């Protein structure tokens, strides 16, 4: 028996090659087009009118785009920080301890990943409509639709994603390491600080970058729960399309694309750091 | 009486409905090399973990040098553990691993480093301080794990299957090394193993466990020569267990009616098994030896050649036994089918309860 896979031959092999190329074209042609036309001087999207940086300039000059970008960044950073802490705690609880309702909690934590965005958006909208007044009355807070509701919504779905990523990392970590630390006179907190955290850090970083990407990209949920003055960049772009597509959208999209690619690249690097640390 | 290093009284550990350790009484003296031996799942590791503080007993009293430690967390106990598969911290260097315990105890950084370096020398890993633990071989990781535990000067060192992951040659080398370290440091080493040979060669005393029960505690000789029951006789070394009944204090009537001499204190009529070690039995052609109460007839079934010995499987009336003949020049050869007698020196057999 040969250990290598059966090598395809002749026309079959050629078809496989074509298939591969088609997939790549399908994936990347729109992205390439987007990037190319973001430098097009023509006002009509899809018509090449010579090279220009005009749209990027307009993007930067427009108060509305700059504001929405800044909104997006603030929301992404804050919701990521909070969901990383909560998601990691949930992951630790589920992976290291058994308690009443463990399975229910486990299943519920996956829900935000599974249910459609629109459903989640409507749920959250209802929730904020019903309960912000109550919460504000009870706790004396000043929650209103806008920044707080968007951040809370993003935390709500990001906790799930963070905890899934961190859990995978904890599951791969030997639980005896914590025991070994405590055997070597570490308190529970010290064992966590000096052994658990460094071990699961790549997972926390990866989960955080994923959360940030999701927060920066979200349109549906954000659009439902946003309030006056809190338009995020993707929501803004979506709004622009309704007024008619201009190459400005292309430029904004390229900026967002760059941001996403950077975050994904960083999370891959974090992932690589983890495998290097293991071998 | 000096205070025992470790003292267990009525220690029981239950996990839900499962009784992992069933009311154990045990004393381990200071400076002793002590083995806890048994098949997997017998409760030996759970017992060790309770001494370390990684599990807490459900019932009973656990003392270390006279101090009750039953529910103290592991970081409050003067013991350290060498874990199965070592559990070295992968993100730390060898030096950081070894210095970890000192750091946690608040030892000043440079003092901790120099003590750790000394200990790394002692386990013969000098020069490898800055390696990551994942870059070390199994044997080296074992030494790092030892150094990491010993640098804290524990009053008792606990070792959980310390040599299990090593290949045979390295294992033998480390056995010698562990004995040397234990003699030099003069503290008790308590180690858990399922390998009876390892337990016999290394320990001052052995505790044999089975299904959560402590069956027997004694020196390797006591355990090998005078096992308390069938299980211990069978688990330690190899043996043939010939069922029979006690006829009087000096005679056992075997299952086929043959009477053999064997002293025991079991009452008449008690069901027992006669333990006859393969290396203590000898073969001769039938009729050559006198029937003196230290022999039984059988037929050669097959022979296994081991190089330094031949092991004969001999069919008796109701069972098969093994006899080991050393491969000396001129040693007699018996073909399968040969009618022979197995005989032994009086006192070579041992009676155990058949339960």
How is this structure best described in words?
The complex is a heterodimer of chains A (279) and B (355). By secondary structure, chain A is an all-alpha fold. Chain A has one domain: MetI-like fold, CATH 1.10.3720.10. Chain A has eleven helices and no strands. Chain B is built from eight helices and 20 strands. Chain B starts with 5 loop residues before the first strand and ends with a strand. In chain B, 24% of the residues lie in helices and 34% in strands. Chain B is an alpha+beta fold. Chain B folds into two domains: 6-225, Rossmann fold; 238-349, OB fold (Dihydrolipoamide Acetyltransferase, E2P) (Beta Barrel), CATH 2.40.50. Chain B has a six-stranded mixed sheet with strand order 6-7-8-3-9-10, sandwiched between helices. In chain B, strands 13-12-11-14-20 form a five-stranded antiparallel sheet. A five-stranded antiparallel sheet of chain B has the order 15-19-16-17-18, with no helix packed on it. In chain B, strand 7, helix 5 and strand 8 form a beta-alpha-beta unit. Chain B has helices at residues 44-52, 94-104, 109-122, 138-150, 168-185, 196-202, 220-225, 230-235; strands at 6-15, 18-28, 33-37, 59-64, 67-68, 79-82, 156-160, 188-193, 205-210, 213-218, 240-248, 251-254, 259-261, 271-276, 282-285, 295-305, 309-315, 320-326, 339-343, 350-353. The chains are: A mainly alpha (279), B alpha+beta (355). Chain A binds chain B through residues 174, 176-177, 179-188, 190, 194-195, 198-199, 277-279, and chain B through 52-54, 73-75, 80-81, 83-85, 87-91, 100-101, 104-105, 134, 148-149, 152.
What's the topology here?
The complex is a heterodimer of chains A (279) and B (355).
Chain A: H1 10-37, H2 54-61, H3 63-96, H4 102-114, H5 117-139, H6 147-171, H7 176-183, H8 188-217, H9 220-225, H10 233-242, H11 247-278
Helix pairs in contact in A: 2-11, 3-6, 3-8, 3-10, 4-6, 6-8, 7-8, 8-11, 10-11
Chain B: E1 6-15, E2 18-28, E3 33-37, H1 44-52, E4 59-64, E5 67-68, E6 79-82, H2 94-104, H3 109-122, H4 138-150, E7 156-160, H5 168-185, E8 188-193, H6 196-202, E9 205-210, E10 213-218, H7 220-225, H8 230-235, E11 240-248, E12 251-254, E13 259-261, E14 271-276, E15 282-285, E16 295-305, E17 309-315, E18 320-326, E19 339-343, E20 350-353
Parallel strand pairs in B: 3-8, 3-9, 6-7, 7-8
Antiparallel strand pairs in B: 1-2, 1-4, 4-5, 9-10, 11-12, 11-14, 12-13, 14-20, 15-19, 16-17, 16-19, 17-18
